[in-house]
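Record minuted for completeness.

…
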Amino acid sequence: MAASPTLRRRRLARQLLRLREEARMTAKAAATRAKELSPDRPWFESKITRIETQKILKVRDADVQTLLDVYGVDDPEQREAYRTLARDATKTGWWIGYRDVLGAGTLVDLETEASRIRTVQGFYIPGLLQTESYARAVVRSGGYSEEEVARRVEARMMRQHILSRSDAPRLWAIIDEAAFWKIPPDLLEEQIRHLIDVQRPSLRIQVMPNSVGPHPAMDGSFVIIDFATDPSALYLEHPMSTLFPEDPRVLEHFEMTYDHVHASAMSVGDSLAWMQSLLQTRE
């Protein structure tokens, strides 16, 4: 499985916060002690909190070692584990070559180490399940130049490679019926056949029918990314940006929303039959 630098950064921040809390130190006290141990490095209360909230993307090895001294971590193996974690948090994946269209690439990064991905989509087929033709139509609708359309579609197709790995994450997608009616007519058959053919025990699709009426996920699409040993991550789609709320209460809210939508949508079997019926109406 590919390693996720973003996940490593989240883990490092969480563990350094835990060490400080176990040492019963405030961020200000930790910074004061760090300055005493490492007077040649800048240490402030804000620096401690920025590390713990992932505002500092690359934590220097010297700073990690100083913090371990501050928190009394003396075991050589433990210290090396923290240093390795900090080094891994600075590495990059294939998506770095697509920063012009992916930005920070946080979603793609986190997906690489996911054990399960749960997504609720209102108006589009999820990116991981789009055919190349449909992806091109969706991206083109954003008003991008043809060069940028090509780059974005290429990146999206690269992103889908995680589903063909031997350790592929489980994927459960809930798609509102509205998304199907927005597929261009000339692309409908290819896209739906793909959704039917791609399903397997570890990849399931449910359709949220119009007959359900209003439901909790109508405010926007979202993705919950689960990991084997780390807390889940939440991705929210927004017209002007992408959001990754860290507040556990926000994640809990969307977990409940997902459960409600999951229970309200058609079953996997009924969803499959519904998609097949769409194909039959075109024959």
Summary: The longest strand covers residues 170-176. The chain has two domains: 5-88, 94-129+160-280.
